[in-house]
């Protein structure tokens, strides 16, 4: 999908000019996938206008102008207001490819509000801010494979992209959407452990952060199962296996599994409300 060419006159418009929209737009521009001159959004606030204008994005006063001047319309607004925003713009949306990153908002509802089903739902996560997002896309009824490939390429500019059936989105949200928070807690706890063992705070936090980054890179780049990589570090009678023993006594793996399952359950409850 990532090799799909983007038409030379293609333009994308962001409805919503918050941090996620900015992360996506910056990633698309920085990667060379699309020049800033073909990206637009709308906002009346000076701070957000300047944030987008600083890297060349056209900023209008009204969302209707964004829709009119775009081929793809990407809704990056809060879930609580996405319905009102889509309904307000509905008359102008009929021939557009539509995309939503609103968490917990289902395609069937988005399509109903828009009046057509050429819609794609995307679940990115906060590491989009540093170009390391994990994004999952699901296609609506009238969205074509070409549409999906185009959106996958755009989101590939801010990280890695997977395709999935929308029925898995609650679990996806629980793992990759909420997952960064679990890892932030783990980094904080590792750093606290380092401090408890006598390290200065800044050294402990730096070591913990880089260790997590390095470990994740090894899983991705070596192709080895995490269990095998763990075994490679844990020598007989050594320090690592002593630490792992403590983690197992505390139910470390079960707690992480339960966190994902609990978050998925809550996501299902929220999407039904």
From TrEMBL:
Domain Pyrroline-5-carboxylate reductase dimerisation residues, every copy: 166-270
Gene Ontology MF, one: pyrroline-5-carboxylate reductase activity
Gene3D superfamilies membership: NAD(P)-binding Rossmann-like Domain (3.40.50.720), ProC C-terminal domain-like (1.10.3730.10)
Positions annotated to bind NADP(+): 15-20, 76-79
Pathway: Amino-acid biosynthesis; L-proline biosynthesis; L-proline from L-glutamate 5-semialdehyde: step 1/1
Record localization: Cytoplasm
The family this protein is said to belong to: Belongs to the pyrroline-5-carboxylate reductase family.
HAMAP family reported in the protein's UniProt record: P5C_reductase
Protein name: Pyrroline-5-carboxylate reductase
Species assigned in the record: Nepenthes gracilis (Slender pitcher plant)
């Amino acid at each position: 999908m990532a090799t799909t060419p983007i038409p030379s006159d293609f333009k994308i418009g962001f409805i919503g000019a918050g941090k996620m929209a900015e992360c996506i737009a910056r990633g698309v521009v920085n990667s060379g996938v699309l020049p800033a001159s073909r990206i637009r959004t709308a906002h009346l606030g000076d701070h957000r206008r300047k944030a987008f204008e600083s890297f060349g994005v056209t900023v209008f006063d009204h969302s209707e102008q964004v829709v009119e001047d775009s081929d793809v319309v990407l809704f990056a607004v809060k879930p609580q207001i996405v319905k009102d925003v889509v309904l307000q713009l509905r008359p102008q949306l009929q021939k557009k490819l539509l995309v939503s990153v609103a968490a917990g908002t289902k395609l069937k509802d988005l399509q109903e509000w828009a009046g057509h089903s050429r819609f794609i739902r995307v679940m990115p996560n906060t590491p989009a801010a540093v170009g390391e997002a994990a994004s999952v896309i699901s296609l609506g009824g009238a969205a074509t494979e070409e549409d999906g490939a185009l959106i996958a390429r755009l989101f590939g500019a801010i990280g890695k992209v997977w395709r999935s059936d929308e029925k898995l989105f609650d679990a996806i949200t629980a793992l990759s959407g909420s997952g960064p928070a679990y890892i932030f807690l783990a980094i904080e706890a590792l750093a606290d452990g380092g401090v408890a063992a006598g390290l200065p705070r800044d050294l402990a936090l730096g070591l913990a952060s880089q260790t997590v980054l390095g470990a994740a890179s090894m899983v991705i780049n070596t192709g080895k199962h995490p269990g095998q990589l763990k075994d490679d570090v844990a020598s007989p009678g050594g320090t690592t296996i002593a630490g792992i023993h403590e983690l197992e006594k505390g139910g470390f793996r079960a707690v992480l599994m339960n966190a994902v399952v609990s978050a998925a359950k809550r996501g299902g409850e929220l999407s039904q409300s």
